[in-house]
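ugh ok so i messed up the first submission bc i forgot one of the chains. this is the corrected input, ALL of the components this time, i swear. 265 residues overall. if the numbers dont match what u have on ur side tell me asap before i send this to the collaborators (the ones from the other lab, u know who)
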Amino acid sequence: MSEKIPASFVPYQKKITPYLDGTLSANDRSEFEAFVATHPEFETYIQKRREEINLIKGLIPTVTMGDESRVELENEIRLSVFNLLKPEARTLWQSVELKIEDWLNR
Amino acid sequence: MTRKEFYQYLGPLSEKLYSFAHALVPDDLQAEQLVIDSVNAYLLKERKTLLNRKADLKNKKNIQLLRRTILKSVLRYMADIGCRRAHQLTNMRMNRYSEFTAFYNLEPEARMVLKLRYEAQFAVEEIEEIMQLARYQVIEKIHNGRFLIVNDLNKGVEL
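and heres the new structure output, hopefully the right one now
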């Protein structure tokens, strides 16, 4: 990282990451894009940062569950939904309906 | 919306929620428990709103939109409960995930923010909402997290 960066690039170099992250304001974004359009050699710096971000993505774990664990977790979630979102029965018929629904989704 | 309808929105999110929970607590059982606790907290707090909401299970776009809203809401509870829990479980063994040591060495909040930003591609505004942080705090966590993770990786290469 000891390579010399042209002085005019420095303020824009600081904006590469926010630009790629989408955190630049609309004005800054337009200014940044205008600078890149007139300085095609600046694209190298953007590409480098893009690669760094891709590297970071590879360092973030994406854990998947085994089939058995997934079914177990889905059952637990279903149970929570059916218990915690149970509406109050106002009539006898409604309470029978809820009982049937509970039984069917056990 | 009935319970059955609501489950059709929430059910398919279980794997995604588990992956987020694992970023906070790198243990299979703890992660499963965190998903269940976050869903329960969400259901208890939002019960009334959910029951009064109308379901539209015919329009694919609407299903996806509501599912994303539900995902964000559950993640909000997960971030809150999970970050506190992760701080209590700092000594948890991570041997199984040694290839991700740099990531797990970060603070739980930074792990969650990086996962939201780079894996789930949430916008900064959405991360603000999920993490209940100000914009500058989210940006700071993204930048610091990224710096630390790369630094940690380079240290490993030097050794």
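quick check: Chain B has a mean pLDDT of 88. that seems consistent at least. Residues 8 and 49 of chain B are 17 Å apart (CA to CA).
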